[in-house]
């Protein structure tokens, strides 16, 4: 719509506790604002009645941009897009984000999607906005897929990845931290100091999205950003959204030292892999803790070297997991090991090996918790051809992907008795770990029950015997076993019907 400069950006609601304003939209908004566009940011926390807000704001707008993740995100994105198209048929609707970038052609076949910004979106969306504002067509915009005037789908060339140090800072001023604090109970500010990971795990979308390139802010930029943002917005907690923060360990240590030197106090978390942390010295890990790190998430996935090889994670070994647990325990940092269950080719014996090894690690290091999930096949991952051969049905439309939430079981080889045994052994594994976390703060009656259950639970795990699960019945009457945690923050996540237990 030539003549207008308003752009509406929408982040659909998702399951899980909010970690602050949607960082993807804040990053997209910043270059648009610098170029003189009027950006309206909408999500379900800023605008609880977000559908009415979007319909109101898109009247007279230049475009509506929506960031989409695989799973429940898609439902709200599709519903809003249809409503906007009905009200303002000529308004361009531009999708972006992980799902749209990884399943581009299929997503663009939907009648309510006009264009897709693939991959790193800041510069592509800015060029799209400038073209639309000046009445030009979209041919030649690198990193864009769109429908031309005849309705034909056009995929332009990839846009070269920009050094993120050359991009403007996210537009944090567009979001009020108090709104997100009211929802989460803590004043948080999501931050990304790097994108990309050098590894090529067969199940990972990051490898497809960022092409194994580690693209990081300079140390001084990270330290200066946090030293300025934390006091300005009275922030208590900063979750880092980096894919693998410790890829450059010297950089990570320098950031920790810079935070300490700044004198700004806050807690921060990040995700990484055990091989990188295992190489750090005890002093360096303690330095992370001193700077405010209180939680780290690790994609350990399995304790079976055979399964790790199937995942193309040959760089990871059990001794690194043990060393990671030891060093973080020494530093007083809580950690979560993610576990993927049901990976193609995994046997029940290998699964039980994972449970036994992980239980042994947690026995020695009580700072360790676990977040297990059934393997979820996301679009575009390297293993998709093999999955199709094994009978996994790929969703045939954008909206079919809505049901593929993390932990949703669509695996043909994990059904019936096999699934039941997995669920039962997983429940015992989690119960055993929770028993070990008994503290003096727990009421004596509950503590007594845990002591009573401990020995038989450990016996069952050691022997893989799970019939007549009386211990589970007793434990459920006393307290709920935590089945899933956020890998990023360690927070307990609500159970959903798609999860394994």
What does this protein structure show overall?
This protein is an alpha/beta fold. It has a domain at 6-155: Response regulator (Rossmann fold). Helices cover 41% and strands 14% of the residues. It contains 19 helices and 14 strands. It has helices at 23-34, 50-57, 73-87, 98-102, 104-108, 122-133, 177-184, 205-210, 219-232, 249-262, 274-278, 282-291, 305-310, 318-331, 348-364, 384-389, 416-436, 444-463, 470-478, and strands at 6-11, 38-43, 63-67, 93-96, 115-117, 144-147, 153-155, 194-195, 215-216, 237-239, 267-272, 293-301, 334-341, 368-374. The strands form three sheets. A seven-stranded mixed β-sheet has the order 2-1-3-4-5-6-7, with helices on both faces. A five-stranded parallel β-sheet has the order 10-11-12-13-14. Helix 15 (348-364) links the parallel strand 13 (334-341) and strand 14. Helix 10 packs across helix 12 (282-291). The longest helix has 21 residues, at 416-436. The chain is globular, with a radius of gyration of 24 Å. Residues 494-501 have low confidence and may be disordered.
Could you name the key traits of this structure?
501 residues; alpha/beta; 5-stranded parallel β-sheet; 19 helices; 41% helix; globular
Secondary structure elements and their pairing?
Layout: E1 6-11, H1 23-34, E2 38-43, H2 50-57, E3 63-67, H3 73-87, E4 93-96, H4 98-102, H5 104-108, E5 115-117, H6 122-133, E6 144-147, E7 153-155, H7 177-184, E8 194-195, H8 205-210, E9 215-216, H9 219-232, E10 237-239, H10 249-262, E11 267-272, H11 274-278, H12 282-291, E12 293-301, H13 305-310, H14 318-331, E13 334-341, H15 348-364, E14 368-374, H16 384-389, H17 416-436, H18 444-463, H19 470-478
Parallel strand pairs: 1-2, 1-3, 3-4, 4-5, 10-11, 11-12, 12-13, 13-14
Antiparallel strand pairs: 5-6, 6-7, 8-9
Helix pairs in contact: 1-6, 9-10, 10-12, 12-14, 14-15, 15-17, 17-18, 18-19
